[in-house]
Design goal:
Blueprint (H helix, E strand, L loop, with lengths): L2 H13 L6 H20 L4 H40 L4 H7 L9 H17 L3 H10 L6 H18 L4 H9 L4 H4 L7 H14 L3 H11 L9 H9 L4 H6 L22 H4 L4 H10 L10 H30 L7 H11 L2 H12 L43 E3 L5 E3 H7 L6 E3 L6 E3 L4 E2 L3
Antiparallel strand pairs: 1-2, 1-5, 3-4
Main location: cytoplasm
Subcellular location: Cytoplasm
Family: Belongs to the RMD5/GID2 family.
Length: 443
């Protein structure tokens, strides 16, 4: 468990009435006290009513204590994770790094302020951005503010399963190099239409097939569209989900027309009478032919949609950053993760203590004296070896990606261009690439 997951556990406790102290107390005040008052006013024996009310108060006390126990456990886990992530002797460590003092140089201090400002702006925390702007001479550009606001709005819409803003953004940028350029055009529009198709298919297969014909067929050469449609047609669990009136994300498609827009009759379709609800509850007790209960199928569907939704959020964020040439990730977040989550600071401090004066001033190290294990996504040094020259890529000889997707070193690419050629034939396939199209890669 990391700090993020510990904080998420606390947030889930606060959002659940069963684990909060206010939930049982509100139920006691709203239900039990009101009921007791009405019983006394109706002529029942006050002594009997008060006795029962005392029992309910004791039960409420137990519920509150039970909820507080969960809170204390979650708070304890958070404290443990903070202790693991950050060394307890930060003050001593800071002294070891204070020659020269950290961020004493105006340029270094401004770089830190800029990194914090950029991080807050990317996340749309405008109150904090304004506070930083007041304390420093830095200003967050208006164009980036507008883009960040647009990004946060679309991400929130995706999280709420409103995919229309994301589709409109894709439509506006479809003619740019980021969405249509070979060899890796963006698959974001397909995945947006795919999720809408799956949502619609839970209620109306014919409507879903029509939507697929209008919006998904064009992706057949590059995506498993036919497999998706076939899986929808032969999904036996759909009958169960159509019978339920649950509050899962699957109800979203009730308000969608065939183009993924809001249906004018959506509100009317949500209304049910008591008889239909009774039939629904009766049907929810059935079991499917494969032995799975309807409740299990519904939970599996919800989990699938949550996964699709989180993947879409990350995919859209990456495409948005690529479109406007922003860094893929928050640099401040990466720095903190490298120092705390992956334990780099602990390992460096341990080496400083063990080897002492043999290593000299830690601020003057050109490189770390020990290996710090990092996950693959946090390794930023190129390890690419050209398959043609068998040489490792460097800053002066970076890797280049051809139109077909194969990668060779720049020197190998230039050698293949000799003789007045305008394009290079890939060493591994017959496709040719012109010099202006070849893209440099950063590992």
């Amino acid at each position: 468990m990391y700090i993020t997951s510990a904080l998420s556990a606390l947030e889930s406790l606060s959002s659940s009435t069963s684990t909060s102290s206010s939930g049982p107390l509100n139920a006691l005040i709203d239900d039990q006290f009101t009921l007791a008052k009405s019983r006394i006013l109706s002529g029942e024996d006050p002594k009997t009513v008060i006795t029962e009310l005392q029992k309910n108060v004791k039960n409420c006390k137990k519920d509150v204590e039970k909820g507080l126990k969960s809170w204390y456990g979650a708070l304890g886990n958070l404290g443990k994770e903070v202790d693991k992530a950050f060394p307890p002797n930060l003050a001593d460590i800071s002294e070891a790094y204070s020659d020269p003092p950290l961020f004493a140089d105006p340029e270094a201090a401004q770089a830190l302020d800029r990194a914090i400002l950029e991080s807050l702006g990317r996340r749309g925390l405008w109150d904090a951005v304004e506070a930083i702007e007041k304390e420093t001479s830095l200003r967050y550009p208006k164009t980036k503010r507008d883009l960040s606001t647009e990004l946060q709005h679309i991400l929130l819409s995706i999280d709420q399963l409103n995919l229309q803003p994301a589709l409109e953004w894709c439509s506006e940028t479809k003619n740019t190099i980021f969405l249509n350029s070979p060899p890796h055009p963006s698959s974001l529009p397909y995945h947006l239409h795919k999720l809408i198709f799956k949502l619609i298919s839970l209620k109306d297969k014919q409507k879903a097939i029509k939507y697929a014909n209008e919006n998904l067929i064009k992706y057949v050469p590059t995506q498993p569209v036919l497999k998706l449609i076939t899986a929808c047609l032969y999904d036996k669990s759909d009958d169960s989900t159509q019978d339920r009136d649950g509050d899962s994300p699957m109800n979203y498609n009730d308000n969608l027309d065939r183009d993924g827009n809001e249906d004018d009759n959506g509100e009317e379709g949500m209304i049910e009478n008591d008889e239909s609800k009774s039939m629904t509850m009766h049907k929810s007790r059935r079991r499917l032919s494969n032995g799975n209960s309807i409740e299990t199928i519904s939970k599996a569907k919800e989990k699938e949609f949550e996964k699709d939704k989180s993947e879409l959020v990350e995919m859209f964020k990456n495409e948005f950053c690529r479109r406007y040439q922003w860094s893929k990730e928050d640099s401040l977040k990466i720095s903190i993760e490298l120092g705390s989550k992956f334990g780099s600071l602990d390992k460096i401090e341990k080496a400083r203590k063990v080897m002492g004066e043999h290593l000299g001033n830690i601020r003057k190290w050109d490189e770390l004296p020990m290996e710090v294990p990092l996950p693959p996504e946090r390794r930023y040094h190129s390890v690419f070896v050209c398959p043609v020259s068998k040489e490792q890529a460097t800053e002066s000889n970076p890797p280049k990606m051809l139109t077909c997707g194969h990668v060779i070193a720049e020197e190998s690419f230039n050698r293949l261009l000799k003789g007045g050629r305008r394009s290079v034939k890939c060493p591994y396939c017959p496709m040719e690439t012109s010099q202006s199209v070849a893209q440099r890669l950063y590992f």
